[in-house]
Fold:
Amino acid sequence: MKNITVETKSNGYKAEGIQNMIGKFEKAAAQLFPGCTVRHFYYGDSLDMADVALEPGRYAHFNVTAKRVSLCGYTCSSEDLEKFGSMTHNDELYNGKLLEIAEKADGGNIKVFYTFGSDERFPFCGGWVEVEALSMKEAHAIFREHYPDRTPGILNCSDYYTEAQFNDSDMLSTGNRGAFCHRKLSA
Structure:
């Protein structure tokens, strides 16, 4: 993110299964609070305890998982609290708009996730490649540039998903055949 500072406390975890949601969280922070500092502490591989600090004594604490972002504590003005509340997703206390804010920050791009099975002719065994593009057609073209069709007209993957479909699966948190994101591509 260009207009925010991101710090991650190193503790041996990488939180690979939740990096997609962490990316959305950071985009929303950059959109709503330019110049803020986002601090991550990965509590295992499936939970990020994140802080968004605006200045000393003005911050909010969140728990970020693959399918949920919860606002857990804050010290800020009511105006900031309203913005912090909008950064949630699937939180029963706040009417969060995290996905919409992150999408707006992307400039309308979509994300497509290309998954792989066990066929050794695939570029990878399990996991996925994430492609960000303006349309599904452009995403397929970008994917094909890097992983050409083995059979003309048939993508060199097991399946592909829109972001909404992918988020509804459990792959972000559990992986696909023991693997997670291999590569992110964009136009």
About this structure: The longest strand covers residues 48-55. DSSP finds six helices and nine strands in the chain. Helices lie at 19-32, 78-86, 98-105, 136-146, 163-168, 171-174. The radius of gyration is 18 Å.
